[in-house]
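Appendix B.2, paired examples.
Example (i):
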Amino acid sequence: MVTTTPTLPPAPAAADVCYPESDGQPVAETDVHRTLMFELIGMLQTFFRADPHVYISGNLFVYYQEGDPRQVVAPDVFVVQGVRNRQRRIYKLWEEGVVPAVVFELTSRSTRREDLHSKYDLYERLGVREYFLFDPLGEYLRPPLQGYRLHQGRYRPLAVDADGSLWSAALGLALHARGAQLRLYDPAGQRWLPTPQEAETARRAAEARAQVAEERASVEAGARRVAEERASVEADARQEAEAEVARLRALLSDRGQSL
């Protein structure tokens, strides 16, 4: 009996490997987590909008091993410094050449094990400089905001300030937990970064103020025109009256009379 060894198909070339853009899972655990994710992305994108080499995204597949689409992670929010800020469908580390500098995971009881272990180990191994965990519903983290910074290849926990805030050296921002919200403070500009909703409200208020100012300026300009026209009419009337008086005087003078 002749034994034959089955011929296995060749491994696919790197160019033939499919890297999916979605796994069909929900974007976030709850409405609170989803809203917070969009707020963080919006605040950070606004803060770094003038820098064309800072890319900010969230819930996007980050592939970290070429040829193996199973080696993937989808951070809730991440910031990459040193790559072009453009729209992406997925993020491939071997093509971009830059690891995210900061990762935020909006954790919950159901993602606790993954966020504290597998993702923690992966981000540390990949070289993510800062890793922040925030438990907006207060399900298990005490305190609900915690962070780690890479030091000699290992994560070291960040000290929490007396007000419960953390400092992100990579972002140049202070992180503050406020109930189910995570707010960002810019000490250089001495301002809180607005959420997208706050920024939109401020934009509409500024537009309303500009419209009121424009209408007021238009009314004032109209009033000035009316006053100028009235003054012009009065000046013309005075000139006409003076001319009439002069004419009458001249007429009476001719007749040997006085006015």
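Example (ii):
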Amino acid sequence: MNTTPSDFDAEVTVTLDVLPKRTTPPTPASLLALMNMAFSIPPQSTFELETTCSLPIDTKLLSLKPHQHDFGKGIDAWVVGGAHDGKLIYTTDEWEDPPVATFDPPLELKAGDQLRWVCRWQN
């Protein structure tokens, strides 16, 4: 984008890499967003919100990254039910640039297993 009143020449280079031919079709991936925005934090107080969501389908969890704003004080997440019941799969006290949790091999969860998370804030 040119935000100046003068013209200029620009050059764009695109490099594409070809993947080797697969013998099996790729597994589709998608984004799973878990949210609860129905809360209010009184001024000058701390607040902790716990939410549990059931997975509608069998899921292979590849990674997890939370999102909070600057009043956020941390997030913890667990699996509820199934083979990984009670397993803590994420914890952080960072709001600005929380680490990404990656699961290699993917964390295999079944339909009906749940993800429970607790978010903490200081208003």
